[in-house]
Design goal:
The protein is about 5% helix and about 40% strand.
């Protein structure tokens, strides 16, 4: 016979286990789902490298997954909450089914996120960058209680150097504060409204693109911009590099497969033209892409390196035989047709 105390413990343990399982993440609501819903797993959410136009081999960490969240009154201030209301699956907006929450925030409330992140000890001359693919709309980011930056804008990626805010040890605390007034504010919002109907969409509040972290050299390539000039058979490229030292050089090379087709070394300037002889033009029939590699060199040795790509193509306007302006691809008229893809999944 089971003693009463043991029976109580057994029932209590079973109750706690059932409650734990019932509070595990799952899509919220009973809306239409896409065929991909069942493949979403909290431990492996959008695992792909998030920046294909500037790829740096080395240490990067995907921070998508389950975070703590809280929705608090706006007047509650900027203090990071000491307790949270549950878990949210990042990077799905809090109003969405896949977030596991499906709640509206609005102009009078603040959405908080929190999670611990692991940062192995940094090597000498290394920095840690924290990247957000997009957060809608106004957000403050804190690392170990220190505000590392503020960003305003719901559609563009942004980054912060969080090196100075890291503490000894591998575990760091990350928090994000978000305010989004939706259609009660002046910010660009597309078709987001508080009362969606017809062609108007549910608001999208908070983190809705991949969050990730990478380790970079103190001197590193932050961004590049490529603009093709088909008429001049050239690619204009500008390189934005952080913390360049006197004497540093930036080497830019263009590749057709394993064949190097152009190279320039930049010193004292951040932009140049690469001459592309006999360029292979990008078209809908032949969407050819060149590979691009960019290096920062110091005393002949690489400090940082990234890979990217570009297309040689020309977009222009010209009148047809009837004098009607047409958009041209590589000086040829291309009839355009297709559905309007708004980019929103029902889940």
């Amino acid at each position: 016979m089971i003693r009463p105390s043991l029976l109580f413990c057994f029932l209590l343990g079973g109750s706690l286990l059932a409650n734990s399982q019932s509070t595990e993440w799952k899509p919220a609501g009973d809306h239409i789902k896409t065929p991909w819903t069942d493949s979403v797993k909290p431990a492996n959410v959008l695992p792909d490298y998030p920046r294909p136009q500037l790829v740096r081999s080395g240490n990067w960490t995907n921070l998508n997954g389950l975070w703590q969240y809280a929705i608090l009154p706006k007047f509650s201030g900027d203090a990071i909450p000491t307790s949270f209301q549950g878990q949210i699956l990042v990077p799905f907006a809090v109003e969405s089914s896949l977030s596991g929450i499906e709640k509206t925030v609005g102009k009078d409330s603040i959405l908080w996120y929190s999670r611990n992140i692991n940062t192995p000890g940094l090597a000498k001359n290394k920095s840690t960058l924290l990247h957000f693919g997009a957060v809608d709309w106004l957000c403050d980011v804190y690392v170990n209680g220190t505000k590392v930056g503020t960003h305003q804008g719901g559609y563009d990626p942004f980054s912060f150097d969080i090196t100075a805010a890291l503490k000894k040890g591998n575990t760091q605390q990350l928090a994000v504060r978000v305010w989004d007034p939706s259609d009660d504010g002046p910010q660009p919002r597309g078709k987001q409204v508080r009362r969606p109907n017809s062609i108007w969409y549910t608001p999208v509040t908070g983190i809705w693109q991949t969050v990730w972290m990478e380790s970079v050299p103190t001197t590193y390539i932050a961004s590049t911009k490529q603009v093709p000039d088909v008429d001049k058979k050239a690619l204009h490229i500008s390189v934005n590099a952080e913390n360049l030292m006197p004497g540093d050089a930036v080497r830019v090379t263009a590749w057709d497969g394993t064949n190097k087709v152009a190279e320039q070394v930049l010193t004292g300037t951040n932009e140049t033209d690469l001459q592309i002889a006999n360029p292979k033009l990008w078209s809908t029939e032949n969407p050819f892409l060149y590979d691009l590699k960019v290096y920062i060199e110091r005393k002949g040795k690489p400090v940082d390196a990234i890979s990217s790509y570009f297309a040689m193509r020309k977009i222009s306007l010209a009148p047809d035989k009837q004098g009607v302006q047409r958009m041209m691809l590589n000086d040829k008229f291309l009839f355009q047709y297709g559905p309007l893809d708004q980019g929103w999944w029902p889940d």
